[in-house]
Amino acid sequence: MLIANPIYDTVFKYLMEDLDIARELLSLILNTEIVSLSVKPQEIAMEYSIAEKTAINIYRLDFVAVFQEPDGSTKKALIELQKSKRSTNIMRFRRYLGENYQREDVVIENGIEVKKPLEIITIYLLGFKLDDVPVAIMQVKNCFINAITGERLPYEPRDQFVRLLNHESYTIQIPLLTPNAKNKVELTLDIFNQRYKTVNEHILDYQGLHETPLLNKIMQRLTRAIADEKMRRQMDIEDEIESELQNLDSQIQKYKQELQQKDKEIEELKKLLSKK
User: Fold this and answer.
1) If residue 254 lies in a helix (H) or strand (E), which one and from where to where?
2) Distance CA 121, CA 167 (A)
3) How far apart are CA 273 and CA 267, in angstroms?
4) Are 86 and 127 in contact (CB under 8 A)?
5) Which of 89, 87, 94 is nearest to 51 (CA)?
6) What is the DSSP pairing of strand 54-68 with strand 112-116?
7) 238 three-class SS
8) Which H or E run contains 37?
9) Cβ pair 31, 188 in contact under 8 A
């Protein structure tokens, strides 16, 4: 089936604007039930750092989710979703995370609305491979240990001091997703896999062998996206920006190599002069 390529920011935004799809997809990744979901304003961070000599395009999307707890109670938390096609300085991700640590949202306590900071869960959707993480989907979860005995606590503390100063994260490496899905999460996320790319990079020829109600919803929405002329123009713009950033990186790397060669020649001249 031909679908719009969700690696593109404009397509991914269109997909996640369907809050029913977003709620089911996030519930699947987090392996918990989200009973309601609202989205914060989207942001695409695009900048060039001379000091770091790298261009970056990170798409960021924040959700406020209400989770169903096993004991029947509910919990409100902030889900920060960051998507990046290219490897970049880790400080970019840290800065966006730091902004969310300062946010507050309305919660109900004893029937009264109060503004409080929320627990944070981060999801990183990466279009590149990490150096030393050989798995496609990695969860980093809070682990509470008695530092005196070395034993893990038999329960997870609910105190805000602990919950609000630590956070759970999920890292998804799209290039490591394989056709042989081992569970429903990998099966669903395979729709982002770039091995389905056609001659036109805007379009994937998705060949998933299994179908689920959620996958069907995602495929139908991404199929509609292909016919959207405005979305096709926006993907063209993304390609142009990406091409310009890559050219800029290439030029800077070239100048950097030339400067290093000049520095080497100067050092050799200095040694020669010193001997004379």
Assistant:
1) helix 229-275
2) 6
3) 10
4) yes
5) 89
6) unpaired
7) helix
8) strand 34-39
9) no
Containing 67, the helix (H) or strand (E) segment is: strand 54-68
- The number of angstroms, rounded, from the C-alpha of 157 to the middle of its chain's C-alpha atoms is 28
Sign of the alpha-carbon torsion through 166, 172, 176, 182: positive
Determine if the pTM surpasses 0.85: no
Tell me how many degrees the CA angle 129-43-24 measures, rounded to the nearest 5.
70
Which candidate, 168, 212, 169, places its Cα nearest to that of 190?
Answer: 212
> Rounded distance, CA 127 to CA 5, Å?
12
Mind listing the pLDDT tens digit of every residue in the chain (276 residues)?
A: 899 999 988 899 899 999 999 999 999 999 999 999 988 765 554 444 444 444 446 788 889 899 988 777 888 888 999 888 777 656 667 776 777 777 767 666 666 676 777 888 999 999 888 888 899 999 998 888 888 888 888 887 878 788 777 888 999 999 998 877 778 899 899 999 998 999 988 899 998 777 789 999 999 999 998 888 888 788 888 777 766 666 666 677 677 777 877 888 788 888 888 887
CA distances from 208 to 179, 195, 198, 218 (A): 8, 11, 15, 12
128 Cα distance to chain centroid: 11
